Structure formats: C-alpha cells, structure tokens
Amino acid sequence: MDARSYLFVPGDRPERFAKALDTGADAVVIDLEDAVVPAAKLAARDGLQRWLATADPARLMVRVNAVGTPWHLDDVAMVSACGIAALMLPKSDSAQQLADVAARLPAATRIVALIESVAGVVAMRDIAAAPSVTRLAFGTVDFCGDAGVEGLGAELDHVRSQMVIESRYAGLAAPIDGVTLELDDFARLTEHVAKARRFGFGGKLCIHPRQVEPVNRGFAPSEDERRWAARVLAACREHPEGAFAVDGKLVDRPVIERAKRIAAFDTLTQ
Predict the structure, then answer these.
(1) Coiled-coil ranges per the record (predicted)?
(2) Distance of alpha carbon 8 from alpha carbon 143, whole angstroms
(3) β-strand 27-31 against 5-10: which pairing, if any?
C-alpha cells in the first residue's frame, strides 16, 4: 500500500523521532532541511546517524538539504551509509538532479521528488521518469513563493492536475499533496484531504502529529465506498461474461478495478 501520511519531524530533535513513529504515520520524514537552522545542520546529521544505529529504518525517510547547499552531499552519503530505504529531495528542479542523487544511493533506495518551484513544475515529466523516483510531492508553500501565487487553494488546481497526470504517465504512485498550515483547524484539514483525493492524490504531508489520523482516514475508503465495492464485485461474479449495472450505473473494467482496490484496502493496511 502506498503511504498516505508523511509526518515531518525536525532533524535536530532526536527525542521526537520514536514518538513520531508511534503516531500511526505511514512514513516519518526526518527533516534536515527547513526544520533545522544552518548552524545546527551538522550536529543534526551526526545525531540522526547515531540514532539510526539502534533504530528500525523501515518507515523512515530523510529530507536532505537541497542540491547545491553545503550540506547536501554529506546528507546523501549519510542516508546511503545508514541503510535508510527512502529519501526526499527538496527543490527538485531537474531530472539531472535526481539522477545525480540516485547514483550516490543503493539501487533499492526510493526517492520522493518534492516539487517546489516553477522550474520543477516545467520539468515534472522528466523528473517523474528519473532513476529511483517513486513518487512526487507538492511543496505548495515554497511553490507559491517562487511563482508569485497568492493562495493555496484553487490557485494551484492546474499544478495539482498536472502532478497527477505526470505521476500516472510515469507509472508512479499517486502524488503527495502539500501541508495544511492550520494546526488546529481539523475542518480545514478534512476539506484539504477530500479535495486532494478528488484530484487524484494519494497522500499528504503532515507538520503535526494531530494531522496524521485525519489524513489516514481521509485517504481510506469510506463505509459507503466499501459497500459499493462489495456490490460491484458480487455482481461481477454473477455476470462474468456480460455487461451489468450496479446502482443504476453501467459497470466497465475501470469501475471493476476501482472496486477491487477498495476491497483490498483493509487487507493491505493490516
């Protein structure tokens, strides 16, 4: 199952790492980039490396510092040496950047390309096809700053659609939507998750543990969807050869495949 919730935790707060893993987040992103001030970056990396010596890295991902910064190459080398299965590259602006990072990592390491700039959006098709990239994520706040866009809602609908299309074209998992900045407004968070899911996104970046459960729930099938899937699959068994309708609507192959994905969800999350 593709991860739904990606919880950021500051890379210079090792006392929070295990707590983040206990939140139920599908993936915990230890952040060496925006969450750590420049003066603390070396100590944060060293502390993370010591912690990883006794930790299970299965659900961990590290957001390294961006290409061209003084810390980038050593961050990538640390990820490579510690056996972490996934890396998030901020400010992914070109396929060459992703290829250079992949060349420094074990072949099995997964890369999430964080699209945060106009250059990244323009190059998105090539980025999605780059070696080891398994998913795209949308850095909405930084993108707005770079593009001069004022607003995180409908103003970004075109980019969201493009990200879904390019992910699908490249055979990647559904992309990851950006953060919701309102930490205590769960109605807003629920609205954002529902919109992202309608657009074709499969997960969301989280900046607080309280956001994890609503995000996981929002990207899971509802009870109505589960019941619908059961009706479709039951009718499919009764009509293995011919066309049929469920709830007054014609069922074709894409509908059947969607029903199968919904029916398989609970098995995959156990």
Answers:
(1) none
(2) 18
(3) parallel
**Portions of the chain given CATH number 3.20.20.60:** 5-218
Q: Is 142 annotated as a binding residue?
A: yes
Task: Consult the annotation and say whether 22 binds a ligand.
Answer: no
Residue 226 annotated as binding site: no
- The DSSP result for 207-243, as a single string, is SSGGGHHHHHHHTSPPHHHHHHHHHHHHHHHH-SSS-
User: Are the C-beta atoms of residues 209 and 165 closer than 8 Å to each other?
Assistant: no
| CB-CB contact of 176 with 138 (8 Å) | yes
pLDDT digits (tens, 9 = 90+) for 70-84: 999 999 999 999 989
CATH architecture of 5-218: Alpha-Beta Barrel (3.20)
Two tokens, residue 55: 């930790």
Whole-structure pTM value: 0.88
CA-based radius of gyration for the chain: 20
The residue among 199, 203, 213, 158 whose CA lies nearest residue 176 is 203
For the CA atoms of 118, 120, 126, 131, the dihedral, rounded to the nearest 10 degrees, stands at 180
